[in-house]
Structure formats: C-alpha cells, structure tokens
Design a protein that fits this description.
Distance between the termini: 16 Å
Bound molecules: flavin mononucleotide
Strand order of the largest sheet: 3-4-5-10-11-12-13-14
Radius of gyration: 19 Å
Number of helices: 10
Shape: globular
Strand content: 15-25%
CATH architecture: Alpha-Beta Barrel
Number of strands: 14
Helix content: 25-40%
C-alpha cells in the first residue's frame, strides 16, 4: 500500500524539478580525508544511497581553512576538494537525485588547532562562545576568537564567492548558504555575539549586512534560482542569542526575498531540540519570502503532511531520519517502520553508521 500526501508530489524549484517534497537536511559526519578535507569515496555512496529524496543538501562544507571548526569536515576551497565532490554529484545524478552544497564559515566555533599557524578563530567580536568543538579525537572548548577587522570582511565574502564557483565546477545543482546554528553569519546577525560599532554592528540593518552581502555574492555566481539559505531565528545552538529575533529576521527575509533566492530553509525552534523554545511567527517569514519555504526540525510523516496540506511550507527537511534511513522516501510512502539512528556513529568513523543502514528491499521478508 502506498500513502498519498503532498509530500510525494513533485516540486519545481527554480530550473529543477524535485521528485518529491522531502529534503535531506545538511548533516555533518566528519568523514573527510584528514589533512586534505576531501570527501572520500564513501561519501559518494552515502549520498547516492539517499538520492530518492527530492533534494539532498550536503553536510556543511567550509569555504576556507579559517572557516573550519571541527575535525575532518570537508572543504570546497581546493582543487582536490572539487574533484572529491565531483564524484559525489556524479553518483547522485546517476541515480536521478538533485544535490545542493551547504557553504559554511564557523566563525568563533573553532579551535586554534584547526587554524593556519595556530591562529585565533575569527568572529564579529572577541567573545568566546560557551561551547565545545570536536578536535584531535575529542571534545574541547572552542578557542578565544579575535574580532575581524573591517578590512577583512570583503575577503570573507570572496571566500563564499570562490566556494560557489568551485561548487558549480563540482557539478552541484545549487548552493545553500549556512546562515544558521550560531556560525559566522548568524554571529554577525545576532546581538548576543556582535558588539561591533562599525558598519557591521549595532542596528539590525548593520548586523544583517554580512548575511545579505554573502547572499548577493553567491547569487552573482550561481544565479538566484540556484541559491538557497538556511536560518535558525531562535536557536540557542552554539551559545547564540538575540534580543529581538522577530524584527531581525523579518528584516533579513525582506532582504533575501529582494535578492530572489530560490528557497528559505528555516530551522524552527532549537536545532535538534524543542520546536516551541521561544515564541516566533514563522508565517511572517513565509509571507515575506517570494521563493520556496523549507521547514525543518523534528518533522515526522504526520506533521510534514499537515504542514504541506495547510500550505505553511513547500518542502520539508528531515535530518536524523535520513541518517538511518537511506530509503526514507520509500519507507514513508509505504508506512513502513523506520530504522533508529545510532548517535555514537554520527561524527567520524567509517562505513558503520554511515553507509550500512539497511533499506526495506534489503530486509528479509517476514
Ligand atoms: C549529526 C548531525 C549533524 C548536523 N550537521 C549540520 C550541518 O552540517 N549543517 C546544518 O545546518 N545543520 C546540521 N545539523 C542539524 C540538522 O540539519 C537538523 O536541523 C536537525 O537534526 C533537526 O532536524 P531533524 O529533527 O529532522 O533531525 C546536524 C544535525 C545532526 C544530528
């Protein structure tokens, strides 16, 4: 028996047609080749196994060495990395899938051991986050950052621009800008982390500027119809906070809509935690934004179907369910049981907990 909801209908996202409304959320797995930060052959298998999703979004990929915050995450700033990603996109496309890459700069959520010459990580302001990163095989407090000079900001935008060029060369269908989860672009946007008194600090307009400038630069390379962005208005992830997230994000989304981005991907509530952590009017963002609204955080089949039916979203991103169910689409369609995920194999390691979760077809008939 096959269940019928809007979740399994096609969707036209800019120039591409998605086979269904399920999106695989970006998921960091820390399995890149150490030292070169190239996605290896297992990564191509992993994404290809999940190619029946309407759209895959890759794990966050750093736009520069400075933008890296955790051990063995892949980059998209070197020729070798582009070649590694090409193998991923080819394999996904062979299976009929569509794939965007998530572009990442972690800002202050990093460690001196990941930075060139042991330098301090960079941030809008020299405020250390209360939080940990994973480095040298274990968890460690993030390092004390230094505030970016005004003169360095164009270089950050250029890093996103170059990463976009590289991503297109690697065969990606589009770009997702990582504007969420307490990383650099959100650090600039939110006043808990941004205490600058120059053109990038103070007012909402100033704090939103870097996210919008990066978006404009990515759009200039990839085209608006291939550029999406992820935001998380009220998440406390990575020690981030803001005094007035509704006003801030209403402003940001007006700016993103003017740039005609193809989608707005919203982590509703606390990333990986309660959806109702703080009052926030997501419908206001949906109303303001001209493109597709992608909803994420704690969705299951029933909630996803309901939200699509009421037109509160166009697409639904699933994170953990896609880790443990390569054939999540087929399982949800059939109303079949889902595999549980194993937290111990989320970050780092090899095939175990990565490419060895069984599909329905592989399960013995009862
Ligand atoms: C192992 C793991 C890695 C993640 N990596 C990323 C990431 O690279 N980029 C990102 O924006 N969110 C990341 N997230 C957050 C997920 O994309 C998603 O927002 C979260 O898991 C909630 O969705 P879910 O309830 O469907 O799992 C990660 C979450 C997990 C569990």
């Amino acid at each position: 028996m096959s269940r019928s909801t809007k979740l399994f209908e096609t969707y036209k996202l800019g120039p591409i047609t998605l086979a269904n409304r399920l999106v695989m959320a970006p998921l960091t797995r820390n399995r890149a080749v150490p030292g070169s930060f190239v996605p290896g052959p297992l990564a191509a298998d992993y994404y290809a196994q999940r190619a029946s999703a309407g759209l895959l979004i890759t794990e966050a990929s750093q736009v520069s060495q400075q933008g890296q915050g955790y051990q063995d995450t892949p980059g998209i700033y070197s020729k070798e990395q582009v070649a590694g990603w090409r193998k991923v996109t080819d394999k996904v496309h062979e299976r009929g899938g569509k794939i965007f890459i998530q572009l990442w700069h972690v800002g202050r959520i990093s460690h001196v051991d990941l930075q060139a010459n042991g330098a301090a990580p960079v941030a809008p302001s020299a405020i250390r986050a209360k939080g940990k990163t994973f480095v040298n095989g274990g968890f460690a407090d993030v390092s004390e950052p230094r505030a970016l000079e005004l003169s360095e900001i164009p270089g950050i935008i250029d890093d996103f621009k170059r990463a976009t060029k590289n991503a297109l060369e690697a065969g990606f269908d589009g770009i997702e800008i990582h504007g969420a989860n307490g990383y650099l672009l959100e650090q600039f946007a939110k006043d808990g982390a941004n205490k600058r008194n120059d053109a990038y600090g103070g007012s909402i307009e100033n704090r939103a500027k870097l996210m919008l400038e990066v978006s404009r630069a990515v759009v200039a390379e990839a085209g608006a119809e291939r550029t999406g962005i992820r935001i998380s208005p009220v998440t406390p992830a990575n020690d981030i906070s803001d005094s007035n997230p509704q006003a801030l994000y209403d402003h940001i989304v007006d700016g993103l809509s003017a740039l005609k981005l193809v989608y707005l991907h919203v982590v509703e509530g606390a990333t990986g935690g309660p959806r109702d952590i703080a009052p926030f009017d997501y419908a206001s963002l949906r109303k303001r934004f001209g493109g597709a609204y992608v909803a994420n955080n704690g969705y299951d089949f029933d909630l996803a179907s309901k939200v699509l039916e009421t037109n509160a979203a166009d697409l639904i991103a699933f994170g953990k369910p896609f880790i443990s169910n390569p054939d999540l689409v087929e399982r949800l369609k059939a109303g079949a049981a889902l595999n549980d995920w194993d937290k111990n194999t989320f970050y780092g390691g090899g095939a175990k907990g990565y490419t060895d979760y069984p599909t329905l077809a592989a399960e013995p008939a009862e």
